[in-house]
């Protein structure tokens, strides 16, 4: 070996990709194989762990919290029928509030992400929106981003922010996404939303940075009366 | 048209249109349920297959799945149909066609099968695939070799090539290079060294093209590079004089879906002409590379056919091959498990789709490869990818995708690892592309039996290659 440095280690230092893993014949060595399985298992478990609303309630003391479910009755249906994850379950009733803002904490594809980061981001965001009236926080099970349109419309809110667990990767299973929609109602399309993704301190975006961006976007959306592509062009730079 | 019907166990099932018949005859998958076109029971599915088996193949030349007047993919398919090539099977039903293909396969009559390609429409091959089981899909595809070339030859019998996919979250040159070298040291990269760029910027695309070109020239590797940017970005790279080996584009099976991708047939033709003009080939002149995948039309809301009815995702996928084959591709691959569980839910559905796509592409004359892959929210794991890879190897698949440690750190999904490729080659007695295999031998990367050696880091070949990653 030249210079005393293991050249495989040198190769590994250049990228997060799984290079120079070594071989056991024409397969991976057992240790490397188990490392990969552990990463995949963590991601799989993150998808399938149910959302525990008690964790969210405990982290939002003094706030009124409502719970809703989408029309997808279970995880398997949720994964195969994104259309059902965008609709409220039959018989759902929410109070008409006329609030400026509704906030939805949605399980999405990583319930653990919203448990870990959701409440802190809600508090950081509301701190930055003095003077905004805010509807009760809604916790949503088996939810896609667009379920926020139905929730926001039912609450009569002028805007909705959906904080939702992003699809787990092998390196990160607890990344939170935030989606803002002005004048929410069923039928809104993705181009009418703004997104802040990868909220996951300390490795990803901090609560303060995400809340700052969201508050600026909400303020701009209120002036413009719209969110999405139109807002993005004039609004603050989004991370990523 | 009168409704087609079949009676099973005393219940009569009726299929008012060709679109519905094809959809209901399709083996179960989540995307067709999502689209609202799947069979509602196992019996209805077999009833549809029974009706489909009796349908004359020639019906597909008269009756459309997506309308001729409103869809340029349909026009392309029908306007370029070769009646002389179709003649040997023109009088057969779909079921009779399945039987004939299996007879030719058993007899080893490859010429009879490959000679049909231009006479078959995507809808015909989709239809017959719906009547086939796993072993049928493997056996017939194996007898339908398609060989293409640019600086290496892809698709020869007994070979399994690889796209080395050295993606990096920020396109960092050293990071990309590290993955390239790791792949080369594992005998991968013979089909293409192809990067999915983290952004679609033309300047970045040119930088990455130059990076890969430099590695290929430095070690005189008989392969080609590709940066999988949008075709309009590649056109700008061509204008800038960048070393473009292959024009890449994702394509789908309807005009509306291609529009959603920002692609027209004219754009593809223009970019292909630009790459051809560079004359960068040594063993062939195939300069395009296409990716497809079941569900892409539905995800773009562009999956409706005649009468506004949803077309099943497998038939639409075969139609994407109808687009690709007009541009003499070097490589076409379905990205079979990438799109997620709402289209292919579990290992069984991904396995079936991968084999169908490979079979349909081969019958249509395409150099098919497969990205054997999955996301973390699908019911799929490494056992499933092993199964599909070994079956594809047996089926004569031209190439597979390979990434370091099966983990794509930019696109966040799992594909095959370099060792997965070595294992499949070993089990099935398959070898790399011939020019690339000779290069591996010259570099001292092969043992006496022609297998890729596990090198100690002070081996001359390892030292030589690792020098490219020195900062």
Automatic annotation (TrEMBL), chain A:
One of its GO terms (cellular component) is ethanolamine degradation polyhedral organelle. Pathway: Amine and polyamine degradation; ethanolamine degradation. Keywords: Bacterial microcompartment, Cobalamin, Cobalt, Lyase. Binds between the large and small subunits. It catalyses: ethanolamine = acetaldehyde + NH4(+). GO terms for biological process: amino acid metabolic process; ethanolamine catabolic process. Its cofactor is adenosylcob(III)alamin. NCBIfam families: PRK05465.1. This is Ethanolamine ammonia-lyase small subunit. It comes from Trujillonella endophytica. The gene is eutC.
UniProtKB/TrEMBL annotation, chain B:
Substrate binds at residues 163-165, 196, 291, 371. Pathway: Amine and polyamine degradation; ethanolamine degradation. Catalyzes the deamination of various vicinal amino-alcohols to oxo compounds. Allows this organism to utilize ethanolamine as the sole source of nitrogen and carbon in the presence of vitamin B12. The basic unit is a heterodimer which dimerizes to form tetramers. The heterotetramers trimerize; 6 large subunits form a core ring with 6 small subunits projecting outwards. Belongs to the EutB family. The lineage of its organism: Bacteria, Bacillati, Actinomycetota, Actinomycetes, Geodermatophilales. Its EC number is 4.3.1.7. Gene3D superfamilies: Aldolase class I, ethanolamine ammonia-lyase heavy chain domain like, lyase. InterPro entries: Aldolase_TIM, EutB, EutB_dom_2_sf, EutB_N_sf. This is Ethanolamine ammonia-lyase large subunit. The gene is eutB. Adenosylcob(III)alamin binds at residues 197, 249, 299, 410. It is an enzyme of class 4 (lyase). Keywords: Bacterial microcompartment, Cobalamin, Cobalt, Lyase. NCBIfam families: PRK15067.1 (NF011649). It catalyses: ethanolamine = acetaldehyde + NH4(+). GO terms for molecular function: cobalamin binding; ethanolamine ammonia-lyase activity. The keyword Lyase applies.
